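Today's session is about reading a structure prediction critically. Students often jump straight to the picture, but the first step is always the sequence itself: look for stretches that repeat, for charged clusters, for runs of hydrophobic residues. Only then move on to the predicted structure, which in these notes is written as discrete structure tokens rather than atom positions. Here is the chain we will use throughout the hour.
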Amino acid sequence: MDDNAASRVESEYVFRTKPLPMVQPVFGRAEALAQTLKRLHAHMLAQSLQAELRTIVRSLAHALIQACADDSDALLAAFHLDRQSPYLVIHQLLGCALTEIAAREMGLDEATRLSLACACLTRDIALLPWQAQFDMQTHGLDPQQNALVRAHPLRSAEILAEQGVDDPLWLEFVRQHHERIDGSGYPYALQGDAILPGARLLAIADSYAAMVTPRPNRTGKFPKDALKMLYQQRANLYDEELLRISVSTLTALPPGTIVRLANGELAVVRTRQKKGAQPDIWTLYDRNGMPVMKPQHRDAGNPEYAITGVLRVEECRSAILVMKRLWTQP
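Below is the predicted structure for this chain, in token form.
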């Protein structure tokens, strides 16, 4: 890339060292976060932001942490519903949001949570040159690709260190995010308490986000199915207590989940279900299959509005703008 081209790219980079504006609703901020991370990935591939990477990622992490504090339901809904951003962008942002929300629940201190958020946003940077190919291919990894994947935690940490990251916790979280409780993970085959608590939490969020985020070559799993798979593997792969916290953090029907009701209407879950309460559902389509102009709250405890099934976002594209209003208007 010549100097003029690099200058043009840099002038288009909307998120450098200044935080994202906090006046807009969190759902809108989520879109800005996704655009920012997408641009950052492009710059990293072009090797045009080496000196600024640490500051940019920390600022992005601060913005995401603040969004979680302001309206975590809107943030989770935005990332679960996003079908415009590349796989790796949503995989990292959704994993980061879940990790931050659960880390708060765990009582981790602010400095550790910042290091953890930075690790969430950069854990896969070594895969950037190959991610587009991975997303498109319909066959399994060949031996060379498998070696790249198994090496990426170490290589990602090396790239970060080369570009000025000197936070040892950030780097160690990146190195350990594919370790598993029973020692079957990589790159070190660590077991149990040898894995940092933050890395154990990140492993859960990373796996969940990978399962529910669609790619060009496959659809994502429904959140409930992904959580069930994680729970089934709790004895071997994941910290059982941290998995409990993560599942409790998300709930079985996370914000953004689209559901079918007994009366034929389609609705969306707006907030996470509080213990002992019915899901917070709002209509998107009437019983005749027509999109509604203004969503109406439905009492899921009423047999007429009981949830009978879950749908994919792709089946409800004409209601995307209506859905956004649930998290962007007072």
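Discussion point for the tutorial: The chain has a mean pLDDT of 90.
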